[in-house]
Specification:
Mean pLDDT: 93
Strand order of the largest sheet: 1-7-6-2-5-4-3
Bound molecules: adenosine-5'-triphosphate, magnesium ion
Order of helices and strands: EHEHEEHHEEEH
CATH class: Alpha Beta
Structural class: alpha/beta
Distance between the termini: 34 Å
Oligomer: single chain
Length: 164
Amino acid sequence: MEPAFLLEVSRPEQTMLCGEIMGKLIPRGSVVGLTGDLGAGKTVFAKGLARGLGIEEEPNSPTFVIMSCYEGSVPLFHFDVYRLSGGAEFEDTGYEEFFYGDGISVVEWADKVRDVLPGNAVIIDIQFPPQGDEESRTIKVAGKEKWLLSFRNTAEQALLASKK
Ligand SMILES: Nc1ncnc2c1ncn2[C@@H]1O[C@H](COP(=O)(O)OP(=O)(O)OP(=O)(O)O)[C@@H](O)[C@H]1O
Ligand SMILES: [Mg+2]
């Protein structure tokens, strides 16, 4: 089992903030897999990540587009593999060039292509808590990269401050 921790958020802005903090700390060449049900907030997190990378354009998830590229200080490759049947079909997209390049790759519905994610990918699982209001989410962050420690500290502090 990979080390993991939870961040509790109560508004979309806080999910965005977590993504933004990650965008500021994430090293080049990283792959982030996003999982969670429809409407959990995967795209919201990806928008925050883009903002943290200094990208002005807001990522969205257009139907039938598997990957969109956003230019910032570091390029962001935003994949949404909802429509793919699995890893085999993903092979055809030439994803390796992006996963093993210098930019940041973020993959919505990463569980569909888990077998081809690099071993050092960060997995962000966004869940609706069993009881809670419509805007609360539990964000589980799993990965063994060292920078995740500073991400955790910074995000926890920022969330505390934003709840005041
Ligand atoms: N705490 C929260 N974090 C993120 N989104 C939230 C939160 N609370 C409410 N929302 C709302 O939930 C929706 C999340 O939409 P989003 O497109 O990010 O989900 P998604 O996981 O990408 O869905 P899909 O599987 O369709 O791609 C948005 O409308 C957002 O405003
Ligand atoms: Mg989405």
